[in-house]
Amino acid sequence: MGEWIERGLAFKDYPAGDKKFPGLILLMEAYGVNDHFRRLAGRLAGWGYAVLVPDLYRRFPEERRVVAYSDRETAMANLSRLKDEESKEDISRCLEILRSDPRVDKDRIGTVGFCMGGRLAFLSAGWFGEKIKAAVPFYGGGIGAPKGFFPGHTEVPLSLVPAIRADLLLLYGGKDDFIPEEERKAVSAALSASGRPFRMETFSEAGHGFFCEDRPSYHKESADRAETLLREFLDSHLNSISSRKG
Predict the structure, then answer these.
(1) How big is the CA angle at 93 (ends 87 and 94), to the nearest 5 degrees?
(2) Low-confidence ranges of the chain (pLDDT < 70)
(3) Domains, the chain, ranges and CATH?
(4) CA–CA separation, 89 and 118 (whole Å)
(5) Exposure of 6 in the CB half-sphere (CA atoms within 13 A)
(6) Where would I find the H helices in the chain?
(7) CA separation (Å) from 82 to 29, 32, 75, 149, 179?
(8) Best label site of 25, 139, 154, 183, fewest CB within 10 Å?
(9) Is 161 within 8 Å of 152 (Cβ atoms)?
(10) According to the model, what pLDDT value does residue 148 have?
(11) Please, are residues 42 and 225 in contact by the beta-carbon 8 Å criterion?
(12) Per-residue pLDDT, 161
């Protein structure tokens, strides 16, 4: 059963047991830390990860922090007000909490993010270098764009590629109207040129938001396959014997 910590900074869900766990920072969509993300945090905790889900809208009025999937207008208005510097501050604090927790192995921490959180998962890998061992952006819009879509998007994700030390798994929908093929190609080209290990998968029948069972764009076949890839990737890079110290 999860709980909120530090006056609403983040939703926390940890596995049962006394051993050291790998940690995950789970980054929300534009609709906030809603039931879907709390359930997903519980699922990841069930896989053996200590999970924090920062509420990146915590500075907004309470009534705007969680938005119905039918209310895209408010979600986009929230996203347009969110600043990269604020997101970095909150993610940094969550990383600090995980790294200082005696139940978490500070050398096995990753990020998983969706939509705007996918972009932030990628940015986090650049912002925090060696502290992030694996990053999984799901349909992260704007990763390959030369400039931000919103006023608060002051970071250019691909400019941070030289600082990334994490292995990456990038997951996209082939029918995603928000992320053109050209952007996916730009991400692939930049990572390939850097020599940074990554895997990119595009699900041909999936659109934007295909992983979320509460959205009209949910595509079960693609979501199930993406979940399998996610679990295998996290197990390989964070939760396997070979990924541990010593």
Answers:
(1) 90
(2) 240-246
(3) 3-243 (3.40.50.1820)
(4) 17
(5) 14
(6) 35-46, 72-81, 84-100, 116-127, 181-194, 220-234
(7) 12, 12, 11, 12, 20
(8) 154
(9) no
(10) 83
(11) no
(12) 98
